[in-house]
Amino acid sequence: MRWFDSDFDYVQELIDTWNKGRKKIRTAYFIIAALLVIAGILTAVFPIGIFAVIQYFAAAAVIVIGISHFAAYASMTYYFRDGMLIISGILNILIGVMLFVMPVTVTVEVITFMLAFLLIFSGAQKISFASRLKYFRIPHTGSLTFSGVLNIILAVIFLLLPFMSALTLNYILAAYLIITGAALFAEAIGMHKLSR
Prior knowledge:
Blueprint: H1 10-45, H2 51-75, H3 83-101, H4 104-135, H5 142-160, H6 166-189
């Protein structure tokens, strides 16, 4: 555990760390967002014909999301690290592995509810982190808040839809990938250089 030092400027440490790695993170977010949207579109356009291939592509995309959460956690300064990113990363990787390994008929309802839970969890984490950044007067948190709200809305939609067939799961996965890609794209656009 790191002890709090009242003479040290933790907000400036966050700003300096952010400004140093912002371009790399922004580029990575744009690439991941594009891959997720492409995976989502392919999943929606080819629901039956090449489902197995798209299922593996979607599984890989969800695992990449999980890995990006670990990278985001590791890149944050100590006092701004959010443990919910680790849990979100683990859940994403777990869902991706389930998509790789298990037959769709077994996992339709399980994955649907896991995705809904993950989206609620991820949305709450983003809104919480944005409010924490606002507390420390760090600007440009609107895209992070928007991304969190978007995740929660999608989760509610997932919970309200009937989950009876693999085709439905296919469109749910497509929606998850496209919305997550759009949210990452919005976050990347909102990544500005910070100053006090």
